[in-house]
Amino acid sequence: MSSDPYLNIVKHRTRYNPCIGGLDVFLQQKPVRASRIISIDCPNHGQRTSQPRAVAVQEDDMVTTLKTIPSNIIRIVLIEDINSRLMSLVGNTLDIDPLFFADYVNTSFKEFEVSPPPPSIAILPSLLSESGYLHLHYQQIVDLGDASLFGNTPYASKTHTNITRNVRRLPPLSGKQLALVRSACSLLVKKVGATSVCLVLVDSPAHTAVNTSRPQSATVLHGGFEDVATSRVSLQTSGGHDVWKRDSMLQSLVHYLQHTRPLRDTTTPIRYLNSTL
Prior knowledge:
By secondary structure, the chain is of the alpha+beta class. It has helices at residues 5-14, 21-27, 62-67, 84-94, 98-105, 119-122, 125-128, 230-234, 249-258, 269-276, and strands spanning 36-43, 54-56, 73-80, 133-146, 156-159, 166-169, 176-192, 195-202, 208-210, 215-217, 219-220. It contains 10 helices and 11 strands.
């Protein structure tokens, strides 16, 4: 038996839900790099009176951040490129269903004859809809550089991150080697005493693709995500803040959470997030 209590829970659940087997494997891997954690406190009732602050959190402070929340606020905790150690800590602290993490970790839909499919395919949609969490799977197009350098390079590669994502090379276009990168953003709301914490897991920007031969630098095409609230946010605050890195899901979410329109109802984290976009 492992000294990690959450890993033991996952191993036990794997007997009954083989689709979370990928999470079992991930939790036993050594972290590739440190995760980035941002905490934002928002009013629990009524309108906010000031701009929410984005506070960087260290892994050693995560238990306090997740468990010590004043009753008059909701706390949104965003984690970019979560590593195995931090995932176990968060899962054990908030008593999170392993299915939530498994669906974020495992986004591969191949080799079903070797390993079970991810929860998004294996679990009934009606059960997932009642789970209290949300997964957004998407793809980004990245520029790998000069297409002539990829003549004998495998079409499939991985990101150099704690949770590896598939990178699929596309046919060359105008001399550029483009690729599709699979990504995910997951959101979970948990009650903590008289209030709630909203956990948001996001992938880091895909800056490196790794194949069997060598790592290759990557740049997200056209700068990244489109601004979804230009008329409401960017124009009203033009000159009042720096342009954020649009290739980063973390920085994009932090930007919108800090620069929101006046709120009518923030009694739940989901309503607060919805009101920002």
